[in-house]
Automatic annotation (TrEMBL):
It is an enzyme of class 1 (oxidoreductase). GO terms for molecular function: 2 iron, 2 sulfur cluster binding; 3 iron, 4 sulfur cluster binding; 4 iron, 4 sulfur cluster binding; electron transfer activity; metal ion binding; succinate dehydrogenase (quinone) activity. It comes from Nonomuraea deserti. This is Fumarate reductase iron-sulfur subunit. Pathway: Carbohydrate metabolism; tricarboxylic acid cycle. SUPFAM superfamilies: 2Fe-2S ferredoxin-like, alpha-helical ferredoxin.
Length: 235
């Protein structure tokens, strides 16, 4: 494995460091990194937690592509080398660890909660939903915030102010929820939001949970266009 090593402030630029790792048939790339950390070089820094494609913390660039390292097997790359670099588009804190503050701020900016207006009901009030109403937004709720879609997005890499795929898909997760009364028009109908997307579709291609952010964005463009001629239109 060739692993990017970088300490901003100490190193001029990232360098690839080579490590010999056993090619075990059931080892994910993350297992290879853990082998390096445990057996060869304890100073290597990277994030991971669940090891089962749920927490979203182990995203890295594997042989040039954004991948979840716990869900990508070493054997996919033959005898190697397998090159591991941090996700593109994000500042590097150390080695393979990237700064996600900007991403978290973008998620918060779309009001990722159920917005209710004009009612004074107890917090325990239930809002029943049909299976069809659940299905309308369910795919967007599968996002694990792994950042792969941002790293694959050519717009985000060039324009860091772009709201980006996961945040827009998250907004649609609530917009399409029958219990929600907002449409997040003020944060989505912007040049740096849905109108910045050039519909390359890489975000959808790399999503390990089969969310379709490209569809979410195109769909909201239609919503925003309709709303501009029919102001009462919300979905
Ligand atoms: Fe949690 Fe890979 S370690 S998604």
């Amino acid at each position: 494995m060739e692993v990017s090593r970088y300490r901003p402030g100490e190193d001029d630029e990232p360098v690839l460091q080579a490590y010999d790792v056993p090619l075990m048939p059931d080892w994910a790339v993350l297992d290879g990194l853990n082998y390096i950390k445990d057996q060869l070089d304890g100073s290597l820094s990277y994030r991971w937690s669940c090891r089962m494609g749920v927490c979203g913390s182990c995203g890295m660039t594997v042989n040039g592509e954004p991948r979840l390292t716990c869900g990508t097997f070493l054997t996919e790359y033959g005898d190697g080398p397998v090159r591991i670099e941090p996700l593109k588009g994000f500042p590097v804190i150390r080695d393979l660890v990237v700064d996600i503050d900007d991403f978290l701020a973008k998620l918060s900016s779309v009001r990722p909660w159920l917005v209710r207006e004009g009612e004074d009901l107890p917090l325990t009030t239930e809002y029943a939903q049909t299976p069809e109403q659940l299905e309308a937004y369910k795919q967007y709720s599968m996002c694990i915030n792994c950042l792969l879609c941002y790293s694959a997005c050519p717009v985000y890499v060039l324009e860091p102010d772009f709201l980006g795929p996961a945040a827009i898909a998250l907004a649609q997760r609530y917009n399409l929820d029958s219990r929600d009364m907002d449409d997040r028009f003020d944060v989505l109908n912007l040049e740096d939001a849905v109108w910045g997307c050039t519909f390359v579709g890489e975000c959808t291609q790399v999503c390990p949970k089969h969310v379709d952010p490209a569809e979410a964005i195109q769909r909201y463009k239609l919503t925003a266009a309709l709303r501009s001629v029919l102001p009462w239109s919300r979905r």
